[in-house]
Amino acid sequence: MKTIFLAVALAGGLATGAWAAPQAAPPVTVGGPGALKQFGRDTADMVERVMPSVVVVRTESVEFHLARDPYYGRWYKIPERLAGHGSGVIIRKEGYVLTSHHVVNEAQQIQVGLPDGTQFAAKVVGRDPMTDLAVLKIEKANGRVFAAVEAGDSDKVRVGEFAIAIGSPFTLHSSVTLGIVSQKGRAVGMLPYEDFIQTDASINPGNSGGPLVDVDGRLIGINAVIQTASPYAQGNIGIGFAVPVNLAMRVAKDLIEHGRVLRPWIGIQMAEPDEAEGAPVLRRGRSRLTAEPAQTKTNKGVFVAEVVKQGPAAKAGLRTGDLITGVDGQNVAAVHDVQKIVWKRGTGEALRVEVLRDGAKKTIVVTTEPMPTGK
Q1: Which residues lie below 8 Å from residue 288, measured CB to CB, with a gap of 6+?
Q2: What CATH number is given to the structural domain containing 212?
Q3: Which among 312, 320, 322 has a CA at the least distance from the CA of 365?
Q4: Element housing 306 (H / E)
Q5: Which of 25, 39, 139, 193 is the most buried (most CB within 10 A)?
Q6: Inter-CA distances, 224 with 187, 200, 359, Å
Q7: Judging by DSSP bridges, how do beta strands 218-226 and 287-290 pair with one another?
Q8: Of 284, 265, 266, which Cα lies nearest the Cα of 274?
Q9: How many whole angstroms separate alpha carbon 67 and alpha carbon 205?
């Protein structure tokens, strides 16, 4: 029956003289106006859920300026009251607020404002300048239970995913901007330790300390830094940076429980190889230290520029001039790579550090210790 059907169909085509080419399948449309409307509604619903967790952080401080009496020549101080403004996000229902260290640095009075208009005094529980993070505690809340944001997993965030920034740029409270995750693991040279999420969601002065969330409303970062067109410009140009939530929540937990960050430390100063005039050098700040050419011509890694006496690395046998090529099986090519691996470990944990010394490969086991205060 199948053969007869095909013959009849072909014959019919020949008899009429009208051979019909197969029709192309219509293009498959992904999304469309309906999908965009639904995305907009879902985003608005998510923002409504997250907004009660976002706060305005207002600060006051007094700065004194020296002035001289023109008649008697005496010096005296003139007080000037300074007002600051930033953002924050509630991370625990008891009223713990995560924000940026630079928002509350040197503040003598801190006030937290909620989207419903209520305002509370707040105190600093702890601060960590190395990651530009601080934790506040809302005071005199009379037993109020606060809406805490849900934390996401910044390690699982993918470049290209949508990201939403919420905060109070230029005192415009509860502002929302939409963008994408532009890149991860950025280091821009502003903090001792950086592992920023880059986003093109508009972040401006006043957004600092506010949340960067995903489309499900989960916290993925704390907005911290923006790239501007010039030192004299403040506006956003589509390049902003946020501290990833995994790091931020770890810092916050230590600040709440211990008042400081229990940071793992191996006791070395590092420098990255750099080719200059055909000879490898060490790049550390503005200084340039000569290194052995044989160690950098065909190998990538990070130089040990200094080993702290009696530190974990010194005890393990690491030496100045060693070229670190890997840590715990992960290849490293920058100081940031080593820092990131170490900081993800706890204190008292062993790290397998692969080094190149005098052309020979060695594996040295270094046990982390708590970073000394002031390091």
Answers
A1: 274, 276, 281, 282
A2: 2.40.10.10
A3: 312
A4: strand 302-307
A5: 193
A6: 13, 13, 42
A7: unpaired
A8: 284
A9: 31
The pLDDT of residue 27? 57
Q: Which domain holds residue 88?
A: 51-138
Query: For residue 134, what are its two tokens?
Result: 């601080």
Q: Residue 136: which pLDDT band, with cuts at 50, 70 and 90?
A: very high
Catalytic residues: 102, 132, 208
3-class SS of residue 53? helix
Task: Decide: pTM greater than 0.85.
Answer: no
Structure tokens at 255: 């600040």
Count of CB atoms within 10 A of residue 19's CB?
8
Residue 75 lies in a domain: yes
Residues 113 and 158 in one domain: no
- Residue 138, SS3? strand
What is the tens place of the pLDDT at every residue in 87-109? 999 999 999 999 999 999 988 89
Tell me the two tokens of residue 166. Answer: 């919420």
Q: Of 226, 184, 223, which is closest to residue 98 (Cα–Cα)?
A: 223
In the chain, pLDDT over 90 holds for what percent of residues? Answer: 54
Query: What six digits make up the tokens of 346?
Result: 């706890």
| Residues 170 and 253 both lie in one domain | yes
Domain membership flag for residue 360: yes
Among 211, 238, 258, the domain-final residue is 258
**294 has pLDDT over 60:** no
